[in-house]
Amino acid sequence: MNLFTRLRNVILLGCLAVVAVAGSPSLSDTTQSMFSAHPGKSGLFVLEKGEDALLARAWLGEHATRSIDAQYFIWSNDRIGILASELLLRAADRGVKVRVLVDDLLMDAPSDAMLALAAHPNFEIRIYNPVHKVGVSFPKRILHLLANFKGSNQRMHNKTLIIDGQVAVTGGRNMANEYYDHDQAYNFRDRDALLLGPVVGEVQASFEQFWSSPLAIPVEDLLEGPFHSLKPEQVQAIYASLHAYAQNPANFTPEVREALDHLSERFGLLTEELVWDDIRFLSDVPGKNDSRGLDGSGRLTEELIAVLRKAQHRVTIQSPYLVLSSRGISIFRELIQRGVQVRISTNSLASTDNLQAFSGYQKQRQKLLKMGVQVTEFKPDPAIKKELMDQRRESGKTVPIFSLHAKTLVVDGKTLFIGTFNLDPRSANLNTEVGALVTNDKVAAQVEAAIERDMASENSWDPAKDDPDSFAPLIKRHNLRLWKAMPLRPIL
Q1: Helix, strand, coil share of the chain (percent; to 5)
Q2: CA–CA distance, 79 with 132 (Å, rounded to integer)
Q3: Helices 474-484 and 355-371, interaxial angle, to 10°?
Q4: Domains and their CATH numbers in the chain
Q5: Longest dimension (CA), the chain
Q6: Which strand (E) or helix (H) includes residue 420?
Q7: What is the mean pLDDT of the chain?
Q8: pLDDT exceeding 90 applies to what percent of the chain?
Q9: CA distances from 183 to 74, 176, 178, 208 (A)
Q10: Which end of the chain is more exposed for a tag (fewer CB within 10 A), N or C?
């Protein structure tokens, strides 16, 4: 079965809102006709599969005509990160204004590549809160941690992609192999929302606020010396290298190109799949909060708490990390005492990529279960992986671990939040977070059903009955004991 056949209608529809190829409507014509049919409403489409989410981003980037604004917590120097950079470079070459804002903490892109892209007249790169990596020596990093520990830990966890101010994608996925099923050792089960209509203006406003923040520094200012010494021939050599990488079939297969070329054939079905409703984009502000300690909450945290407290029947949550503050425990206890069913899908020790966060969860797991919270822990090799991943890529190789990374809330089967917010102190108090919120029975039921499938016994363990920790490797269990001994809870 080839790639195009395997793609469900979701990707063949969702990313077609920006088709601008010969013989197809322009972006403005396409969106205006849809907006006219749904006045005042925004469109939402859920991207469940990594391959779908990747093709959506590729299609959007290929057909941008005016602007691309990208904001991510992680942009890795791996196959996906390099291909994404090359796609943006080609967009800049055809006159599209490209702006990229990336958090500093986990930045691993080569300095010369970033500077070469920033040298392009249509390409700008800024780094958020650069106190760890870009232009920062190891002694300076230690100094920052000692002088302003909270500030050093306040990261930009936002993930948004905005095309021509018309279409946006937000959700859990960063720009790296493991978020699109392209990693050979570890891949994430994640979720994104593709957005159209008035809500995209809210996404754009949030991006502009972060882009203009004093915390967002142009990469050429951080690397001023290397930038000014960069010669034109060096810049062109880097561009040529990026283009050559993307043209290599080993990196961007002909099957993927063929799938992209044929997406327009399904354009007519787009309006049947999009959900149109009143959609809000929730966003923290740069810096999150100015409290002195490691707490302090944030705008998005308070909005989600307000949504939770309106629950009447059930709350269904999916979060890769589950570390509740005393306030969070009180809120869930209050819900359960009112008769609200609380279900949480999270990672097991065997599937988690974050032992530090899991150590915090393990310390309070029994307390949550005794309270009545129904927790399931995702398996590293769940049955659902066969539907979500491109199995051809793994043939003849070791099957990678499949880890949960989706951040989703469903209340009473009606209200849905898809975004970047983890159920932990870091998301609540330190990192800036974003996401889409909608009250719509159809899409909320669709996503809740997907979470329920992830919670089923073939995909997850029930820690109230099973012993999930026993399935983790011995070395992982040993390392977990070390992390549990450390006082890390406020920054988990």
Answers
A1: 45, 20, 35
A2: 24
A3: 80
A4: 3-273 (3.30.870.10), 280-491 (3.30.870.10)
A5: 68
A6: none
A7: 88
A8: 70
A9: 15, 9, 5, 32
A10: N
